[in-house]
Amino acid sequence: MNVYIEYFIMRKILIFAMIALFAVTGALAQKVRQAPDKRAEQLTKWMTKHLTLTDAQIPIVQNINYRYVVKADSLKTSKSKRKEVGKQMIEINAQKDTELQSVFTAEQFALYSKVKAERKNKNKFNKKKVKDKVNDKSKTEDIDLEESEHSF
Questions:
Q1: Contact 65, 40 (CB under 8 A)
Q2: Out of 45-59, 98-112, 116-130, which region has the weakest mean confidence (pLDDT)?
Q3: Domain count within the chain
Q4: What does the chain look like in DSSP terms, one character per residue?
Q5: How confident is the model at residue 124 (pLDDT cuts 50, 70, 90)?
Q6: 44 lies in a domain?
Q7: What local confidence, expressed as pLDDT, does residue 146 receive?
Q8: CA 66 to CA 39: how far, in whole Å?
């Protein structure tokens, strides 16, 4: 009888350990987002380097970037539907572009718009690539299932 009790206890401990391991792994796997001020600072540094911002433009652009990073974060953490958030993000980005256009020179804004469009196209391409890969994988799984059904 003692052996059965020990077996039962060991089984409970093992199950608890597995649950704890999955919980810790899940917590570590979540993406940690940087603070809004850090992200705004990185964006401003990128703009300063690639758009050759003047000393007068830097603090203004930093302020604009910070305000819109905070707005975007509040939207992303809201419990709104994904489509609504997407529409609001488009509006926020348009407002940000309007503010930046008033600060940038024509050349700077043209370069900014060009890079933004390139990134958008690259993201669309990558999303399509991932989607195609998932679809291809599901097709091969379907084929494997069909082949295994016929082999019996």
A1: yes
A2: 116-130
A3: 2
A4: -HHHHHHHHHHHHHHHHHHHHHHHHHHHHSPPPPPHHHHHHHHHHHHHHHHT--TTHHHHHHHHHHHHHHHHHHHHTS-S-HHHHHHHHHHHHHHHHHHHHHHS-HHHHHHHHHHHHHHHHHHHHHHHHHHHHHHHHHHHHHHHHHHHHHH-
A5: low
A6: yes
A7: 46
A8: 8
In sequence order, what are the residues at sequence separation of 6 or more whose Cβ sits closer than 8 angstroms to the Cβ of residue 42? 34
d(CA 36, CA 134): 33
Place of tokens 């489509």: 83
- Quick one: 47 and 82 in the same domain? yes
pTM over 0.70: no
**Closest among 89, 61, 91, 94 to 77, alpha carbons compared:** 89
CA 85 to chain centre: 14
47 and 99 housed in the same domain = yes
| Residue 59, domain member (yes or no) | yes
63 vs 128, more confident: 63
121 within a domain of the structure (yes/no): no
